[in-house]
From TrEMBL:
<dbReference type="GO" id="GO:0004065">
    <property type="term" value="F:arylsulfatase activity"/>
</dbReference>
<keyword id="KW-0378">Hydrolase</keyword>
<dbReference type="Pfam" id="PF00884">
    <property type="entry name" value="Sulfatase"/>
</dbReference>
<comment type="similarity">
    <text>Belongs to the sulfatase family.</text>
</comment>
<protein>
    <submittedName>
        <fullName>Arylsulfatase</fullName>
        <ecNumber>3.1.6.1</ecNumber>
    </submittedName>
</protein>
<dbReference type="InterPro" id="IPR000917">
    <property type="entry name" value="Sulfatase_N"/>
</dbReference>
<feature type="coiled-coil region">
    <location>
        <begin position="466"/>
        <end position="493"/>
    </location>
</feature>
<dbReference type="InterPro" id="IPR050738">
    <property type="entry name" value="Sulfatase"/>
</dbReference>
<keyword id="KW-0175">Coiled coil</keyword>
<feature type="domain" description="Sulfatase N-terminal">
    <location>
        <begin position="60"/>
        <end position="370"/>
    </location>
</feature>
<dbReference type="InterPro" id="IPR017850">
    <property type="entry name" value="Alkaline_phosphatase_core_sf"/>
</dbReference>
């Protein structure tokens, strides 16, 4: 059992965030040290001797749904008009919807690291998707997320939560990287993933319904070992994740334990293979297949949502958060009226839906409301969940996320105080028609872009120009200069990426 005497690390998250440390000596001790130690000692004793049912009643269940490659305006509750996502819409109707929520990377692996750790993923040398060992080296990246990273799941597990991860992982154990840690080593009691992680896996079969046998699509995962493997039709992989998640939920409830559940579908990532019943034989376009997969995924997620909604004990003590890991794949979904898509630092690549549902946890007037003022990001969600679950964060960790628990639960409409920073994936320089800026920073209504060498400076006022069509840097040079200094300092403090010479700008 580790007892920290760091005053900020040992206090509950909502007490240690903004409380000044008075009376600090030359050796770093303060009057608050004793309070912090007492808090952790009492917490440890409660965990050791109190019945688990006590914690199930007082500490909420957390479900994070991190959808893959879904555009900001694809959901019908976000004004998507291509199809109806009825189950997610029902959560939004009963919960709280955010319009200014951001993920911390426009591509999968680093976005997942940020949500999992509460830190910018560049701290851990993960700035693009993890791939083959040689490709990771070429781009100056780690092979997997370091086990020293501050995983929310690990802290929740230590504090008495049942923890499960079901769905895409993509933080190590893909392609030819067979020596990555298992998902269980990051603090999960149970897991089921796809070909982007190690441990129990469900691998997809692609059936084009052309009379030919389905094709295996595992990107080398089946050869890696490290866990039982089963093959399922690509159209029902999300169903397999949901089924496993429901079994995990049932067991946690039977054990009287609160649970933390990641349900991270591989949908709606390409290739798109919807169930045959949802395919339109008259339209086999990429966009049509994408939206058919979106509907199928929504139907499967509805099984989990209904299980929680229809059980009073779960309904009143569970929090569901629905997000996307980055923007849509170009030619598939949409982020209209936002500019950009997956891999781009523009709004369409990093602004994500966020729906928070929890009838017994949200403020009384939050149900069915929309928060259009608060600006927050995935690293803030991570930091806030420590407070919501009454879990002490790991000691001596510098989080980039801020505690916005009151905002997530609808009792306040605060924004994060610090700017949000981004660095583009090193292998995504843009196209021959349009460069992808190297760096971006958002502060208030201002979003600023610049390359590493200081070129191609852009400034947009998102309150007046959410589509980022009017570069107003000449009219607001002082604001741009401040943001330039901040983003350059942020970038200089992080490990450097190495551009992969094999990557070039696409058409």
């Amino acid at each position: 059992m580790n007892i920290s005497c760091n005053p900020r690390d040992s206090l509950p998250p909502n007490l240690g965030q903004d409380v000044p440390v008075a009376g600090t000596s030359a050796f770093g001790f303060s009057k608050q040290v004793c309070l912090g130690c007492i808090y952790q000692i009492v917490t440890a004793l409660l965990l050791l001797f109190a019945p688990t049912s006590v914690f199930a009643a007082e500490r909420p269940n957390i479900i994070t749904v991190f959808i893959d490659d879904m555009g900001w305006s694809d959901l019908s509750c976000y004004h998507g008009d291509r199809t109806q996502t009825e189950n997610i819409d029902s959560l939004a109707a009963e919960g709280l919807r955010f319009t200014n929520f951001y993920v911390n990377s426009p591509i999968c692996s680093p976005s997942r690291v940020a949500l999992s750790t509460g830190q910018y993923p560049q701290r851990w040398r993960i700035s693009s998707y993890l791939a083959k060992r040689s490709a990771n080296i070429d781009r100056g990246m780690a092979q997997w997320l370091d086990l020293q990273a501050p995983m929310l799941a690990r802290q929740l597990q230590k504090s008495g939560y049942a923890t499960g991860h079901f769905g895409k992982w993509h933080m190590g154990g893909q392609r030819d990287v067979a020596d990555a840690p298992l998902i269980s080593e990051y603090g999960f009691d149970q897991s089921l993933t796809n070909f982007e992680g190690l441990g129990p896996r469900v691998l997809p079969l692609k059936d084009a319904y052309d009379g030919k046998p389905p094709k295996k699509h595992d990107l080398g995962s089946a050869k890696l070992g490290h866990g039982p493997i089963r093959w399922e039709d690509r159209s029902v992989v999300t169903a397999a994740f949901v089924k496993e998640a429901l079994q995990f939920l049932d067991q946690a409830q039977a054990d009287g334990k609160p649970f933390f559940l990641n349900l991270w579908p591989d949908d709606v990532h390409s290739p798109f293979f919807p169930p045959k019943v949802l395919r339109d034989k008259t339209d086999e376009s990429k966009k049509a297949l994408y939206y058919a997969v979106l509907v199928a995924m929504d139907e499967q997620l509805g099984r989990l949502f209904d299980r929680i909604r229809n059980d009073a004990a779960l309904r009143d003590n569970s929090l569901i958060l629905v997000m996307s890991d980055n923007g849509h794949e170009e030619g598939a979904g949409t982020a209209a009226p936002l500019r950009g898509a997956k891999t781009w630092l523009y709004e369409g690549g990093v602004r994500s839906p966020l729906i928070v549902w929890g009838p017994g946890l949200l403020a009384d007037d939050a149900a069915g409301s929309v928060n259009e003022s608060s600006v927050l990001s995935a690293i803030d969600v991570n930091r806030s969940l420590y407070a919501i679950t009454k879990t002490a964060p790991p000691a001596d960790i510098e989080f980039d996320g801020e505690d916005l628990a009151a905002t997530l639960l609808g009792s306040q409409q605060q924004s994060r105080k610090a700017p949000i920073f981004w660095r583009r994936p090193p292998d995504r320089p843009g196209t021959k028609q349009q460069d992808n800026p190297d760096l971006a920073v958002l502060r208030g209504v201002w979003k600023y872009y610049v390359n590493y060498d200081g070129s191609d400076r852009q400034l947009y006022n998102l309150s007046a120009d959410v589509s980022e069509t009017r570069n107003v840097i000449d009219q607001h040079k002082a604001e741009a200069d401040q943001l330039h200094k901040q983003v350059m300092q942020w970038n200089a403090a992080l490990p450097v990426d190495a551009g992969d010479p094999k990557w070039s700008k696409s058409e």
